[in-house]
Amino acid sequence: MGRTVPSITLAFLEEQDSLARFRRALRRADQLSLDDLLASARQHLAPAAHAAHPLPFEVFLLAMLLEQHKEVLRLKAVLETLLEE
Amino acid sequence: MNILPALSQGRLCLALIPPTAGHAWLMEPLAVLAGRGALRVIDGGNHFNAYRLAKAIRALGFDPAPVLERVYISRSFTCHQLAANLALPLPEASPLIVLDLLATFQDENVSLRERTQLFATCLARLKKIAASRPLLITAKTSHTEFLEALIANSDQVLQMEYQPLPVALPLFQKS
Question: Which of these, A54, A56, B116, B163, could form a disulfide with B64 (CB 3.0-4.6 Å)?
Fold first, then answer.
């Protein structure tokens, strides 16, 4: 009965709520970028749950970084293709 | 509310909290206690959030994982489970925190006579526990049944004031 810890989705939503005041203070364009970052972390909730880290926000940050790195690698590949042409 | 000075062996300390207040305020004192050694938590209202405790532990400069290893938590969903949890052996001289003690005693599916009997059993066990280790009980003021008896049997009663979160007012009125 019951859970030892809240579900990872609840933990994510709580972290997202804690950023609400920060988000409000950002410019509109930056707000959209922050939303993108949070959306990229949300894609990795299942692995984050599996990690069972005591501080889930650290895992969410790593998930954001992972998506950023994937984007960098994708853009690098595109750039290399363009340079070859 | 800093409850640590109130926690001492031989005293049954009760913290009364408003109905809408959570237990986030308790995480920092819990982190301090867990940093010192083993800690036992009995959760009567399903309020314990290990993630918040981990954050509080990190804020004190400790690594959360080894400190959390020293926190033993038992959840009670009925007054019978609560009474059984209070009868469990405790780690040597570790503080005991009972969250929302009266929540399970508001269950109308259990007869009042049985609840009264169980409450008396729990109270006797709590007094025995308080004699050997620091003990803190939290109770919501909305759980009126048995509240007066609990207050009467406590050595120290702390009352938490309700402070609502600031509300961001809209800049423009919607027409």
Answer: A54
